[in-house]
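Subject: Sanity check before I submit

Could someone independently write out the C-alpha cells for this chain? I want to compare against mine line by line before I put it in a report. The sequence has 133 residues.
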Amino acid sequence: MTDTSAEKQRIDKWLWHARFFKTRTLAAKVVEGGHCRINREHVRKPGHGVKQGDVLTFAQGRDIRVIEVTGFGARRGPPAEARTLYKDLDPPPVRQAEPEQPGQPEPAVPQRDKGAGRPTKRDRRQMEKVHGL
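---
Independent answer below. Compare away.
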C-alpha cells in the first residue's frame, strides 16, 4: 500500500496492524462498545475508515490512548514496524511499584498447616486484616 491522503483502512484492521490489540476481534469490540473516537467523533462501526492524519482516542486496558495515524500496513508485522504507523500524542504514564517504607516490618501472613481444613471465622478475619480488606 502506498501512503496517500485519500487512502483509507478499516479502524479495527488498523488498530490490529498497529499492535494495539492482540486480535482484530478485540479491536472491533472496543470500537463497537463506543470506546473509540476519530477526530473527537464517536465511532461504533469497526468498518469505519481511518486516513492518514486522523487522531484516534481509545481505551486500552486502564489507559486512554491518543494516537495520530501516520501510515498504513499491508500486514501485521513486528512491533518496530507497527510503531511507524502512528505517532503517540499522549503516551500513557509509566506505572511504578509503590515504594516500600523503610523501618516498617512486613505484616506477618497467618500460616495454616496443610490439611488443617477450612479456615474458621476467626482465621478469616485475621487474613482479611492482614490483606487490608
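---
OP: Matches mine. For the report I'm noting this point. The longest helix spans residues 121-131.
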